[in-house]
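Section: protein folds

Sequence with per-residue tokens
===
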Amino acid sequence: MKPLLCLDLEGTLISNAVSQIPRPGLYTFLEHAAELCDLVIYTSVSEVQTRTIQKLFVAEKLVPSWFEDLDVLRPVQTQKPKSACGRSDAFILDDQECVIVPGEKSWWIRIPEFLPPYPEDDRALSDTIALLKKLV
């Protein structure tokens, strides 16, 4: 059984829910991550907005078609507890330490925040695949 990888949206996979700029290498990252892990989205972005982004990104072929069908988990207030995943073998890919519940840093995979000017040569997602291969 593959471990579960919980994917943050804003600052991790995309710029933010307003500008919706995909991080460089997003499509390839998702393909490789899906080979290694089961995937869910774990975001504080509203469910309606998250589903809109999923559909838009699939329609624009920025992500694999199955991205639209990923389940979406919601944080508890401002934090993302591992228990919400329902699996002990879960990891979370997130750019913000403040959302990680104290004492749960062992499940956190840190990624640098995707910030303006949104560099086209950003390699954070490809670097994360290399790290995932070591973890799983």
Q: What stands out?
A: The beta strands are 4-7, 38-42, 72-73, 90-94, 108-110.
